[in-house]
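User: Continuing from earlier, I have the next pair ready.

Assistant: Great, send them over.

User: Here they are, in order.

Assistant: Folding the first of the pair now:
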Amino acid sequence: MNSQELETAVRLKLNLVVLVLEDRAYGMIRWKQEADGFAEFGLDFDNPDFVAYAKSYGAKGARVGSAAELKTTLEAAFREGGVHLVVVPIDYSENMRVLVHGLPSA
């Protein structure tokens, strides 16, 4: 929860891969509120360019463009070593269908 730890990891020459699930909002909170019938309020915000942010600390940064890229991007980061930040855009649009309407009632 503290992105400045990237500086510590780079300074200590750690092998670390950080995965950022980017939804530009409190997406899971929004989804839960929607599922429970509550109104949405104040859940959207902008993010920094996480790739540039990682590079500003001397780490490597990558953004995944599709689900198919995730595995190869992570494998490359682990193989190379050092500090890597991998940004994964998240789309919650299927959550209601799969996790609410698609699950049997208890």
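And the other member of the pair:
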Amino acid sequence: MDEEDFFRIVLDLKPDALRFEPGTMNVAGIYALGATLELLLEVGIDNIHRRVLHINDLLFQGLKERNLPVLTPMAVGERSGILSFIPAFMVTSMP
């Protein structure tokens, strides 16, 4: 059975989980993923990692200056691009 033969309509379900795959392939998404991977490799994963941690450091410093609690571990090897903190309106309302 050829799913891309749009001139022949077949209504038989496939015998496995492929029966839940609707429609055609996400061609735009596949193309965009390829372009994204090319860009990531062109810029360099290590460069991106350093930049994300640098921006994370700037945010951390700003939060520290405002005495806002940071929940995310900041030790080397435990960091990521995600930084969680308690916002000011919650800090002032905490007992």
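Worth noting for the second one:
The chain has one domain: 17-93. DSSP finds three helices and no strands in the chain.
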